[in-house]
Amino acid sequence: MSEVEPVERTRVVARDGDRQVERDDALAVEEPLEIRIRPAQGGPGRPFVTTMRTPGNDEELVAGLLFAEGVIQSRSDLRSLERPVDPRIDPELRSNVMVASLVPEAHARGEKLERGTVMGSACGVCGKTSIENVIPADAVPLETRLRIRPELLFAMPERLREGQSVFSKTGGLHAAALFDAGGRLQALREDIGRHNATDKLVGFFLLRGELPLGNSVLMVSGRAGFEIVQKAYAAGIPVVASVSAPSSLAVELADAAGLTLIGFLRERRYNVYAHPDRILAS
Predict the structure, then answer these.
(1) Catalytic residue among 26, 113, 123, 155
(2) 7: closest CA among 51, 56, 57, 60?
(3) 126 is catalytic
């Protein structure tokens, strides 16, 4: 079954000064995705969480979310990702359900986590049962020899915008992109939720068996919230840059995690909030 399209059309009344017209407009699609987990030996699985997302790259989203939640710790923990074959589910709704088959250890971790609500597109750590699960006391700070030049950072916002194909149509999506140490774009994902875009991006590399990403820079289009830093740390990404502001808890986590956190990266300016030693002076 084909994926739901990420863009839909609607009619709007548009005002421009003294002129009022009726015209078509493009909207970014927001749909629920129910994620189910089951043991590798089979079964229908049980609901783990429902998250609001923009359709597309659903397998990557599920892999990245389960990784960020600590359910899977490597590619080998995930046996398969598929749409359900449950005859009780309306065929038209199956595009909004994914079933993850997990090895016994990962399935046991998933069974221990409690889920009671739908994760909205603005909620990055709603699934976590406590703050201690997100910042473990024994967290080891990231260590890397990565050093980057300011010119590399200055070029990233434009490269991020150039890769946002759905945003260019709707103006309503966030993006997360991964750059290598030379400033080359490795991958970019879009979603109505910035945490979803990051999960899709991390999931892409996880499914390829390429984590951790210790020689990379993560660039996000929205603010650098706590959940973005948490997901970057889990994936081993040592530098996170944002076009907007970080939150106080994001700065606190970045400092403790050994992660370089950059905010307000635009118009050849930026602020470094944690671990500035990775940014060369010139």
Answers:
(1) 123
(2) 56
(3) no
Q: How far is CA 190 from CA 53, 82, 160, in A?
A: 10, 21, 10
pLDDT in tens, 119-167: 655 555 544 544 455 556 677 889 999 999 999 999 999 999 887 765 4
CATH topology of domain 150-278: Cytidine Deaminase; domain 2 (3.40.140)
* 42-78 CB burial, b ≥16 within 10 A, e <16: eeebeebbbbbbbbbbbbbbbbbbbbbbbbbeeeebb
Can the peptide bond before residue 212 be classed as cis, meaning omega within 30 degrees of 0? yes
**Could you tell me if 265 and 157 are in contact, meaning their C-beta atoms sit under 8 angstroms apart?**
yes
Q: What residue segments make up the domains of the chain, in order of their start?
A: 31-134, 150-278
pLDDT of amino acid 27: 72
From the number of C-beta atoms within 10 Å of its C-beta (0-12, 13-18, 19+), residue 175 rates as buried
Top-level CATH class of 31-134?
alpha beta
Give the helix/strand (H/E) hosting 87. none
| CB 125 within 8 Å of CB 134 | yes
In order of 71, 81, 126, the CA distances from 46 in angstroms are 14, 14, 19
